[in-house]
Design a protein that fits this description.
The complex is a heterodimer. Chain A is an all-beta fold. In chain A, 0% of the residues lie in helices and 57% in strands. The chains are: A mainly beta, B alpha+beta.
């Protein structure tokens, strides 16, 4: 629809992970702790199912950040959630 | 609460039964809007000098509460009014009443019962819209404010909409509190224009005028809330427009952008250009509180603010958060940003 924009749209972000797949750095900033993680599966009944692995992180520089890995694209995104 | 209404009879004579045929003496001053604005400003300042908090939204009119002034002027309303008369001189009509509308009726010496025509200038909308309402009321035999207030709010809302409800509330004495302006200091600049100044040269003159106004030491870093752009016309007389800024600003670019289109309204060649601040806001970065009483005034002012923000910052500058699916587990489906609707 013209004139409409999404709020909280995901933004690509560079993430390094450990062997388990949990983030260790985000944009070069070390992850202090993984505070929470959860899976979101939606639209599994459509040709474009959505499967995301969310992590709520505490970064070394004091920021709290939520990121997710999109299963289909194997890419990382940050998102306000 | 006792409210006083002062009317400068040269400037604010409303058409009404018994007076509709001709202007009062001096009414010709209305031909010169700058003179009218200056005269109103002078009247408001004289009232402020007496300690009054003055609301003035139309040329030639001022409203203020008497309650806080009695202690300063003899302890009675009569003392305050005597001081007002001394300060303003002749040619002013003064009325007092518990509400703004009733004080206006008293000052204007409206006949009783009050005809609905008295609502024309009280509804906060342009003349045509108010005229349509008055005509519709009269056509249906509702010729007096009393007859209007005898109707139920539902009936009025059905037939006359929001404007009718506003009129009904006025008639019933339900008004939002006075909104006195903050007394402001004089801040204005003027530049003479060489003969034949037009087009790009006029734009440059405006830029210079804006820069000069912002450079005035009395501004002391404060933002501007609104501007009055005026011109002395080569053919005689003068011209002016008032321009709100939507939000307090002291950015030359913002001021130039809002004022430049107004230059196109100049009715003829000008010999001088004037710019005056209509109010000073806090220094940049300070927050303003938006406190407006009642739903309708708030909506009206919000509508004006939306239009001004669009005019100054572009059509896409103002967006609204539209909730879509707050229960979704996918955050980007919670809400959308959509253009703010016209009010």
């Amino acid at each position: 629809m013209p004139g409409l924009r999404r709020l909280y749209a995901p933004q690509r972000v560079a993430v390094r992970t450990d062997a388990r797949g949990a983030p260790t750095t985000v944009e070069g900033v070390v992850v202090e702790a993984v505070r929470e993680e959860w899976l979101v599966e939606d639209r599994w009944w459509t040709p474009k199912p959505l499967r995301r692995h969310y992590f709520e992180l505490a970064l070394e520089d004091g920021r709290a950040l939520t990121v997710f890995r999109a299963a289909r694209a194997q890419r990382w995104y940050r998102q306000r959630a | 609460m006792e409210i006083a209404c002062v009317i400068d009879k040269r400037l604010a004579t409303p058409p009404r039964p018994g007076h509709a045929g001709g202007p009062w003496p001096g009414r010709a001053d209305l031909q010169d809007p700058v003179a009218a604005a200056e005269a109103t400003e002078s009247m408001v300042r004289a009232l402020e000098a007496l300690g009054a908090g003055v609301e003035s939204e139309r040329p030639g009119e001022a409203f203020f509460a008497l309650d806080g002034l009695r202690g300063l002027h003899g302890g009675s309303s009569a003392g305050v009014l005597a001081a007002v008369r001394r300060a303003l001189g002749k040619g002013k009509a003064i009325g007092t009443a518990p509400t703004r509308f009733a004080a206006f009726l008293a000052a204007g010496d409206w006949p009783r019962p009050v005809p609905v025509a008295a609502l024309r200038t009280r509804l906060g909308v342009d003349g045509r819209e108010a005229e349509d309402l008055v005509e519709a009321l009269e056509r249906l035999g509702i010729e007096t404010v009393r007859a209007l207030t005898d109707l139920g709010a539902d009936q009025v809302a059905d037939r006359f909409g929001l404007l009718g409800l506003r009129a009904l509330r006025l008639g019933r004495g339900e008004e939002e509190p006075l909104r006195p302006r903050a007394p402001h200091e004089e801040l204005g600049e003027e530049i003479e224009l060489p003969e034949g100044t037009a087009g790009r040269q006029l734009d440059r003159a405006l830029e210079l005028l804006v820069d000069r106004l912002l450079a005035t030491p009395q501004r002391r870093g404060r933002t501007l809330l609104g501007l009055r752009l005026g011109a002395r016309l080569a053919a005689g007389g003068s011209w002016s427009v008032e321009q709100g800024l939507g939000r307090p600003s002291a950015a030359p670019r913002v001021l130039r952008n809002v004022l430049a289109p107004r230059l196109e309204e100049l009715p003829g060649p000008a010999t001088a250009l004037r710019l005056r601040a209509l109010g000073l806001g806090p220094p940049a970065r300070d927050q303003l509180e938006l406190a407006v009483g009642g739903d309708e005034p708030r909506r009206r002012r919000l509508g004006a603010a939306v239009r001004e923000v669009r005019a100054t910052q572009g059509a896409e500058a103002l967006l609204k958060i539209l909730p879509v699916d707050a229960s979704s587990r996918v955050p980007e489906r919670w809400a959308m940003l959509t253009p703010y609707p016209e009010l």
